[in-house]
């Protein structure tokens, strides 16, 4: 069953902002749903699209312009859920709604775009699946809604091509950009969108959702804490087998001698490559898309370094007596070992170095060299030596 605006959990501020716009304030034609992955941005975008395209609610002059007589008694506006448009939306077959994402490249009319390795959201996809259809008449007459996933992956050329449509879209066209990191978008793109911010969800709520999905409670509690309250990201990491990677890596790091372990760097490189290969295969199976192995590797790098950093942040809390809930409560002895080994200033240095190592790996510095240094830093708090 479709989730409507009233059903959105933990994003009261964002929903209230959308309700004010729907109730008669100026409805932005371009909005940026900014916030972490897995907290309801996509679900809210779908619920808003259903409301905008719903033919069972709204005034004749357009789906976003409601008069007082059309408001429900409690003042809340959402799709009726019963009209033909709502049924088409729930079936994923509404002709005036379009998700736009990088994997659409494989459906592009140009063979050169179809064969390109998927890494960013390119101008070819933006032109064929957003700009061109936005300038055609709506099939149902209620308007058109486009939802761009991972908007920060739009290339500079794609964003520049989209500017005119963002600034002066055809009548009744609404564009929703979903973005985790707005600062990675061009200032010209940001200035043409109304910002709707999404925050993290309560940890207990996230852990409950993971438990409902069949994840063991200890793992569910860890991911809820690690992601700071993201259902989507927690589920993705759990399904990728990252919990086993985390437990193995933290136990190894906690037991390292001061000189490090010559084999651990190679072990992590192999683990990273395995995760990237699995991600490429999963993308191919799900969407038939050629996910860039380089991009998948970078994502695996970020996750592994973030897992390491979470353990050292826990160790800092233990060492300083800070009253902060632990992330790695499931491996308290390993965290205690790190806290006993390092002084607070050393832990701070490790955390700073881990951030720098991620930057180096994204710049394609030799992974084995970097990971050898990561191991030495985690073993002895030694500074960066690459």
Q: Strand arrangement, largest sheet?
A: 2-3-4-1-5
Which architecture name of the largest domain does CATH use?
Answer: 3-Layer(aba) Sandwich
Computed structural class: alpha/beta
Give the N-terminus to C-terminus distance in angstroms. 53 Å
Beta-strand proportion: 5-15%
What would you report as the Rg, rounded to the nearest angstrom?
23 Å
Which regions contain 5 or more consecutive residues with pLDDT less than 50?
Answer: 58-73
| Pattern of helices and strands | HEHHEHHEHEHEHHHHHHHHH
How would you portray this structure in words?
- There is one protein chain.
- By secondary structure, the chain is an alpha/beta fold.
- It folds into two domains: 5-197, Rossmann fold (3-Layer(aba) Sandwich), CATH 3.40.50.300; 240-380, no CATH class.
- It has helices at residues 12-22, 41-53, 84-90, 111-114, 123-134, 156-167, 187-190, 203-212, 217-226, 231-239, 242-254, 262-287, 293-320, 332-341, 344-362, 367-380, and strands at 30-34, 97-100, 144-148, 173-179, 194-197.
- It has a five-stranded parallel sheet with strand order 2-3-4-1-5, with helices on both faces.
- Helix 12 packs across helix 13, helix 12 (262-287) crosses helix 16 and helix 15 (344-362) runs antiparallel to helix 16.
- The radius of gyration is 23 Å and the shape is globular.
């Amino acid at each position: 069953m479709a989730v409507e605006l009233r059903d959105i959990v933990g994003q009261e501020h964002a929903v209230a902002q959308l309700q004010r716009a729907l109730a008669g304030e100026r409805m932005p034609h371009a909005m940026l749903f900014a916030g972490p992955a897995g907290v309801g941005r996509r679900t809210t975008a779908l619920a808003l699209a259903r409301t905008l395209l719903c033919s069972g609610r709204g005034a004749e002059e357009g789906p976003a312009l409601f008069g007082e007589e059309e408001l429900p008694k409690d003042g809340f506006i959402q799709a009726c859920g019963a009209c033909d448009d709502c049924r088409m939306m729930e079936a994923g077959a509404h002709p005036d709604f379009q998700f736009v994402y990088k994997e659409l490249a494989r459906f592009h009319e140009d063979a050169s775009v179809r064969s390109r390795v998927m890494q960013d959201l390119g101008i070819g996809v933006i032109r064929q699946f957003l700009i061109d259809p936005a300038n055609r008449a709506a099939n149902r007459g209620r308007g058109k809604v486009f939802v761009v996933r991972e908007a920060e992956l739009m290339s500079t050329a794609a964003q520049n091509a989209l500017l005119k449509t963002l600034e002066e879209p055809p009548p009744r066209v609404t564009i929703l950009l979903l973005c985790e990191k707005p600062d990675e978008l061009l200032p010209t793109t940001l200035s043409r969108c109304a910002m709707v911010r999404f925050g993290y969800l309560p940890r207990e709520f996230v852990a409950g959702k993971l438990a409902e999905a069949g994840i063991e409670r200890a793992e569910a509690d860890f991911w809820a804490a690690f992601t700071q309250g993201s259902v989507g990201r927690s589920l993705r990491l759990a399904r990728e087998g990252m919990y086993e990677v985390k437990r193995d890596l933290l136990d190894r790091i906690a037991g390292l001698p001061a000189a490090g372990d010559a084999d651990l760097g190679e072990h992590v490189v192999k683990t990273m490559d395995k995760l990237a290969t699995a991600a490429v295969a999963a993308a191919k199976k799900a969407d038939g898309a050629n996910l860039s192995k380089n991009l998948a590797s970078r994502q695996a790098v970020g996750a592994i370094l973030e897992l390491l950093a979470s353990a050292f942040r826990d160790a800092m809390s233990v060492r300083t007596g800070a009253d902060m809930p632990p992330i790695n409560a499931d491996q308290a002895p390993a965290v205690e070992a790190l806290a006993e080994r390092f002084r607070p200033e050393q832990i701070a240095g490790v955390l700073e170095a881990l951030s720098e190592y991620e930057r180096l790996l994204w710049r394609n510095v030799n992974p084995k060299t970097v990971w050898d240094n990561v191991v030495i830093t985690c073993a002895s708090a030694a500074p960066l030596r690459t």
